[in-house]
Structures are given as structure tokens and as C-alpha cells.
């Protein structure tokens, strides 16, 4: 028999990471490809907050959010040679969909295929890449190498420019995109980092 919380669960701490992580994960979506501002979950309350207006003309190419009960801390930071640490946030995920989805604060069952090793101000800020699990166009893709190069190029361009501000140095770099095997290592590390930080509070 299933039980239900009396209150809305916190999207970071109250939801599961997925049915079979690291391959099959649950993504909590904060931003859609139609949004021109950056939304981000407010960590204390769990509500979606307007984080900032995007100053560049870039729009996110995919659904974007995070994997619940993950944390980019010591283990995740150690996987990126140029990073001094993890960024202290849940692990980000980009989810590719054949059909346009404009809603946010939704849950998506996603299948992980790779990722981008983004370093932001010397902090590891990996972007996991996944496809919607039953997507009619993308569901057969099992590794990032099977994606059209244009999709990866758009994602890299977005993350290299979305924090752009005139006359300010953009201290963001992205290394070579990686496939599923390394993505799985990053996800496992982020789950372990989360358990180290919050494990005593898990049910």
C-alpha cells in the first residue's frame, strides 16, 4: 500500500532520484526551452524562484532541472581535473524531448546518455544529458555519441553564454562531452555526496 505525504515534498530532498539510477533517473524540471529567465528552486522552501534574467539571446535547447537527492560536493569535484570542488548544488540535467514541453515544476522519467563537464568559477557543475524514457524519437538513443552534433553544440553554446554580462569575464569552461559510462560515475558520486551531507535526514 502506498503512502502519501500530507505536505508537498521538497523537490530536492523529498523526491526519489529515479527508478534505476544511474541509467534511469527522475528529473525535476526548472526551465523549459520557452523560458527567457533563469528559474531555480529556492533551497530552503522548495518553491521555484526567478534567479535572474538572461542577458544573452540564448534560449535553453532542452528541458533543464536537477536529479533529486544528489549533491555536487567532494566526490563530484574530484572527477573534474580543473575543479577545486563541486558547486554545492544538486546535479543538473538536460532532458531531450521530441515534443515541445512548456511547463516547469514537472517530473520527467529520463534515461541518461552522457554529460558535459562544465567548470564554473573553479567548481564542478556537470550537466547530465538524458532523453525522455519513452520518447518516440529519442528513446532508442543509449549514448551521447548517437546524438546529432548540432544538439551538443547548442547545449555547449548555451552554457558558455547564458551568464554573459557586458564587460565582465565569463569564467566558465566546458571540456569534451562524455558518454554514459562517465555520466554514471558522476551520478553515483553525486548520490554519495548527498548521502554524506543529508543521509541522517533520509527516511
Question: Which helices and strands occur, and which strands form pairs?
Answer:
Blueprint: E1 24-31, E2 37-41, E3 48-53, E4 63-66, H1 74-78, E5 85-86, E6 92-96, E7 107-116, E8 118-120, E9 123-124, E10 127-132, H2 149-161, E11 172-174, E12 178-179, H3 180-198
Parallel strand pairs: 5-9, 6-10
Antiparallel strand pairs: 1-4, 1-7, 2-3, 4-6, 7-10, 7-12, 8-9, 8-11
Which terms would index this structure?
203 residues; alpha+beta; Inorganic Pyrophosphatase; five-stranded mixed barrel; four-stranded mixed sheet; 3 helices; 12 strands; 18% helix
Tell me what the structure shows.
Helices cover 18% and strands 28% of the residues. The chain has helices spanning 74-78, 149-161, 180-198, and strands spanning 24-31, 37-41, 48-53, 63-66, 85-86, 92-96, 107-116, 118-120, 123-124, 127-132, 172-174, 178-179. It has a five-stranded mixed β-barrel with strand order 1-4-6-10-7. It has a four-stranded mixed β-sheet with strand order 5-9-8-11. Strand 8 (118-120) and strand 9 (123-124) form a beta hairpin. The longest helix is centred in the last third of the chain and has 19 residues, at 180-198.
Number of continuous helical runs: 3
Strand order of the largest sheet: 1-4-6-10-7
The CATH topology name reads: Inorganic Pyrophosphatase
Q: Regarding CATH, which class? A: Alpha Beta
Largest sheet: 5 strands, mixed, barrel
CA radius of gyration = 16 Å
Shape: globular
Please state roughly what percent of the residues sit in beta strands, choosing from under 5%, 5-15%, 15-25%, 25-35%, 35-45% or over 45%: 25-35%
Uncertain residue ranges: none
Structural class designation: alpha+beta
What does the average pLDDT come to? 91
Q: What number of structural domains do the residues give?
A: 1
Helix content: 10-25%
Amino acid at each position: 500500500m502506498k503512502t502519501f505525504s500530507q505536505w508537498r515534498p521538497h523537490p530536492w530532498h523529498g523526491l526519489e532520484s529515479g527508478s534505476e539510477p544511474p541509467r534511469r533517473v527522475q528529473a525535476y524540471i526548472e526551465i523549459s526551452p520557452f523560458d527567457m529567465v533563469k528559474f531555480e528552486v529556492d533551497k530552503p522552501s522548495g518553491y521555484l524562484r526567478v534567479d535572474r534574467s538572461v542577458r544573452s539571446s540564448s534560449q535553453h535547447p532542452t528541458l533543464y532541472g536537477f536529479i533529486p537527492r544528489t549533491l555536487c560536493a567532494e566526490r563530484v569535484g574530484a572527477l573534474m581535473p580543473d575543479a577545486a570542488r563541486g558547486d554545492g548544488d544538486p546535479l543538473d540535467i538536460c532532458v531531450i524531448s521530441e515534443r515541445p514541453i512548456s511547463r516547469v515544476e514537472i517530473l520527467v522519467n529520463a534515461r541518461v546518455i552522457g554529460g558535459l563537464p562544465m567548470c564554473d568559477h573553479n567548481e564542478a557543475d556537470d550537466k547530465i544529458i538524458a532523453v525522455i524514457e519513452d520518447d518516440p524519437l529519442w528513446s532508442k538513443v543509449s549514448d551521447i555519441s548517437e546524438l546529432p552534433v548540432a544538439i551538443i553544440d547548442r547545449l555547449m553554446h548555451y552554457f558558455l553564454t547564458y551568464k554573459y554580462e557586458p564587460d565582465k569575464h565569463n569564467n566558465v569552461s566546458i571540456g569534451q562531452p562524455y558518454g554514459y559510462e562517465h555520466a554514471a560515475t558522476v551520478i553515483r558520486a553525486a548520490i554519495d555526496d548527498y548521502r554524506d551531507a543529508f543521509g541522517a535526514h533520509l527516511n
